[in-house]
Design brief:
Layout lengths: L14 E5 L15 E5 L2 H7 L5 E4 L6 H5 L9 E4 L10 H4 L4 E3 L6 H16 L2 H9 L15 E5 L3 H12 L3 E5 L13 H5 L4 E4 L13 H6 L5 E4 L8 H9 L5 E4 L19 E3 L10 H17 L23
Parallel strand pairs: 1-2, 1-3, 3-4, 4-5, 6-7, 6-8, 8-9, 9-10, 10-11
Helix pairs in contact: 4-6
Length: about 325
């Protein structure tokens, strides 16, 4: 039986609290099966959490859960976040509780992989340079990089990282996956520094944990070869941003692309906007048309499982900070 479902009693109508900045789709299907309450902000959430059986964190960029979580007493038995990353939920009160946490693992794999592949092709073929020259009405022939035969290091061996590796592999790129620990087809984190020097592309798609926070700093960028390019679709806190800007300004990297940042939205005065060779996008790599519907369907599938007392999908190991890859329900 699902641990969260054990909290229910016969005849009890479960109370679902939804933290939403933009009301999620599909929840109308729960009519008659659940008491659904929508809240915004810390104060409203704090009032509702003690009476909630389930919390859906639809506004996954909010820190309200951390600020509103009960110190003791009743609390939700299950928290689901509509994001792949769970770092905003890994505060001591929730980690130390018996509350089950699930995430949106699986929804964003293909879109993010496509986004990374698009960046690789755009940078290799200098599409950004072509656009700049077109606006200047300049005809300047260049030679560009051949993607097939190049080498990539993808940091993060979960579903997103594996999908990125598969898509780059289809383009003829030789890919090394780096995970927390070594296993067949995956290098251990301790091997990363030795791999950076041979990579044309370094892609970060790792979960944010204390071990990965700030992992791409001046020392890491110095290990990359001068023609390498760096892409981050993980979390902004993986990168020491001033070190990346310095590496680009000094010409130690050929280019980079960031879809995530330490502070979002990126401040208008940030030097990253004008860092040479840097592509900035507003945390959109996984957001394709219909993605909210996909997230809603995924949650409803898990709600059906929870209400039936069946094992939940995408159960996060709160100590590790992600869903272990050996989870059989995934």
């Amino acid at each position: 039986m699902s641990p969260a479902a054990q909290l229910l009693h016969p005849g009890h109508t479960p109370r679902l609290v939804v933290l939403d900045d933009d009301p999620p789709p599909r929840l109308g299907r729960l009519g008659g099966r659940a008491d659904v309450v929508h809240v915004r902000g810390v104060e409203a959430l704090a009032r509702e959490l003690p009476g909630a059986d389930v919390l859906l964190v639809w506004d996954f960029l909010s820190d309200a859960v951390r600020d509103a979580w009960p110190d003791g007493g009743p609390r939700p038995g299950w928290v689901h976040t509509a994001s792949a990353g769970v770092d905003r939920l890994l505060f001591p009160g929730l980690v130390g509780s018996d509350t089950v946490v699930t995430n949106a693992r699986g929804v964003f794999d293909q879109p993010i992989a496509e986004y990374v592949a698009g960046l690789v092709l755009a940078m290799a073929k200098d599409l950004y340079g072509s656009w700049d020259l077109q606006r200047e009405r300049r005809w300047r022939h260049r030679e560009t990089m051949k993607v097939a035969g190049s080498r990539a290091v993808v940091v993060g061996a979960g579903p997103i990282g594996r999908r990125i590796g598969a898509l780059l592999g289809a383009l003829g790129v030789s890919v090394e996956l780096v995970g927390r620990g070594a296993r067949p087809g995956v290098r251990g984190a301790e091997e990363l520094h030795g791999l950076l020097g041979g990579a044309d592309w370094v892609v970060c798609a790792a979960p944010l944990t204390e071990a990965t926070r700030g992992m791409f700093d001046a020392a890491a960028f110095a290990r990359m070869r001068p023609g390498a390019r760096f892409v981050n679709v993980g979390r902004g806190q993986h990168v020491v941003e001033e070190d990346l800007a310095a590496a680009l300004s000094a010409g130690r990297l050929a280019g980079a692309a960031l879809d995530v940042f330490a502070e979002e939205p990126l401040a208008p005065g940030s030097p990253l906007w004008s860092a040479p060779g840097l592509v900035v996008s507003p945390h959109m790599s996984g957001d394709t048309v219909g993605w909210r519907d996909d997230l809603g369907e995924q949650f409803l599938d898990n709600f059906d499982r929870w209400q039936a007392g069946e094992p939940l999908r995408n159960v996060v190991d709160k100590r590790l900070g992600y869903v272990p890859s050996d989870r059989t329900e995934d």
